[in-house]
Fold:
Amino acid sequence: IRFLPLFDRVLVERLTAETVTKGGIMLPEKSQGKVLQATVMAVGPGSVNQKGNLQPVSVKVGEKVLLPEYGGTKVVLDDKDYYLFRDADILGKYTE
Structure:
């Protein structure tokens, strides 16, 4: 991706919603629910704190993160949907 977020922003790609249940039943789009998991695609350099020091972003490219249900700015790059979130808006990251 040729996109670099500014400051403490993080570019993520949401994981795709489950369209079939474990029993093989197709789910309509309305009942799929919002996917709150995403993969970090790019991160900004961080933000400057009150002392003037650079505070780096707390996630790294490739990590899987938990997003809030609402928020984020949709960005379309190469016909794919990505979302920009501030570092502080990301709720957590998954560890292997």
